[in-house]
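Mods, move this if it's the wrong board.
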Amino acid sequence: MPPSGTYRVQVRPDFPLKATAELADYLADLGVSHLYTAPLLTAAPGSEHGYDVVDHTRVSPAIGGEEGRLALRAALDAAGLGLVVDIVPNHAGVGVPAANPTWWDVLKNGESSQYAKFYDIDWSRGRLVLPVLADEPDALDQLRVEDGELHYYDKRYPIADGTGEGTPQEVHDRQHYELVNWTRGDAELNYRRFFAIVELAGLRVEDPEVFEATHREILRWYAEGAVQGIRVDHPDGLRDPGEYLTRLHEAAPDAWLVVEKILEPGEEMPDWPVAGTTGYDALAEICGVFVDSTTEAFFDTLDRHLTGAETSWQDLVHETKYTLATTALAAELARMCRLVPEIEAAPRALAELAACFPVYRSYLPYGARHLARARSEAGRRRPGLIPVLDQLTARLRNPQDELAIRFQQYTGAVMAKGVEDTAFYRWTRFTARNEVGNDPSEFGVTTDEFHDKATERQRHWPESMTSLSTHDTKRSEDVRARLAVLAELPGDWTEVVRRWVRVNPLPDPALAHLVWQAAVGAWPIERERLQAYALKSAREGGVGTTWTKPNEQFESALRRMVDTIYDDPALNSEVAEFAGSITRPGWSNSLGQKLVQLTSPGVPDVYQGTELWDLSLVDPDNRRPVDFALRRELLARVDDGWQPPVDESGAAKLLVTSRILRLRRQRPELFTSYRPVFAEGRVAEHVLAYDRGGVVAVATRLPVGLSRHGGWHDTTLSLDGNTWTEVFTNTSYGGSQLAVADLLHTYPVALLVKE
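Not the wrong board. Structure tokens:
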């Protein structure tokens, strides 16, 4: 059986396995069936996320080691919970070589290392290039030999046997690796990375020996019955994701497998032996249906006024993807070009094809049509390259061609870096829609579109995960729910934000608009958190400053802008007042989103802490400590009969979350089909409702517009003649026509169970 519901916990050194084990009884009371953890294998020293695994043979000592894992298992068993673990097959942490035994051996012994096959290295280029030196002409002068190792400041590297005599530079020149200026790495690296992160080296899990070595421990947990589900991180980086997932499924045939596959709107997933994705596709649909799509033109006008330009999302994405394809990912581009040395224009043509690629990647022969679309668009943008494009695409269509294989790995990285990590921070007209798996140019989702997508998920991927918040979302579900209110108040938002950017200017007006949306979306937010978010956003967007070349003048102006929000009493009061005006309808949207995520087709995941209001921004903000004591206390009060109001406590969201999760766990037969239910009456468009096969979910859409109409009036739902019990209020309803005003009198959401 798949999970009925999961709860994601960021297991990390400051919240180790012991602390996680202590949550088991709370999670069981909340109603989930499975704990879902961040990666547990040994990560790089100081890692706060676990995605930089350095040792696949053991649980990280920093989070409690094997003893902690066994204690967690005992606690989960006692609470009747299962475990879903996150694994990272695409890459390993190499930033601290001494912490990674296999990487250390590769550095010491080069291509003759028994672990050389573990990593995706192009040895034809000679020594393994490591971009770690300072941008100084005499950086190599800082090398020293100590304790049989080569040291550069606090970094340590091995010395091959018989090569340790002479000056430190002479010793360095004899090694199987070459330390180079960190700024040269983008063009000269000869190992595949995770995106453009030099500390994460690509693994070759397509090799059976590497697969076995890197999965042995995880599969041991599965074999002993301690793990029932596996979440696969970033499969798009793998050489052959389908082959890998088939091998994993064969090794763990009864495990619930979900993959972090980012689907673009309208894209279908290959027919892999998995339960589905990690839920970004559902996130885009669920959040979008609570956005008023009729006001898009207002935000287009506001964006033009603020920025002084008319920006096309498609052109912006092309620009950012092409730039990243030829700079941060230049090493991967160069490696492909070495496969076609006879084509002089290959670098431009391959980068252009990647910039025009409409999805993250294809899985040849599946998805060949995406290459055809990219070729067509590339030819339109660069007609002079058409002969070269045709020459290259002839090879890129061949699943066996090494060029085609590497191009598929390349396009996913180009999309992620160019869109998620750059364009999302430049295209700021309405940031509630700037989320992984969504096209921000698609302003909202109609109820008909939502029903079609939900029906499709029920038919094809009924056990896929659904998510609203993750460790990778750009802003939490409750921030997006509040920002969705702006779409109902375009005039009010236009008035205040135009005044704010005038009295508190920033050289980059698009970034200013993003920061103002973050401020009202997460208000009240501490100054330090907003400062950190603004700086990260600026460097990610790369307009006024960047990570590699920080512009202190611009960053000082940005700090002053954020400080002014807190230090100017009039401005601070105005921001607080406006945020307050959208808070209550934001709560309505939050409860609606949560109801829909928890009841619609798929397996819902609750990200840590989001059972109460959670106004978090992008990581690391969304990894802050969670007050579980407060959540325990509020859940106990709810279970004692307290009917919490929709207010600052967030207990109403806890009520909705716990009641639905428990019902899904206890009565899964009620959630086996999907049928839209349509309201009738003057304001019927404000109702989103559907029948899952024994339960009917009802949510309020566009609460500001509803209040303008003066409430529900004569709006009704047509149900069969049975008696129904509303889960959140324990109220019984009968008859075939149910007044929505009665049903949603206490909360803006309802869940009806057929008696």
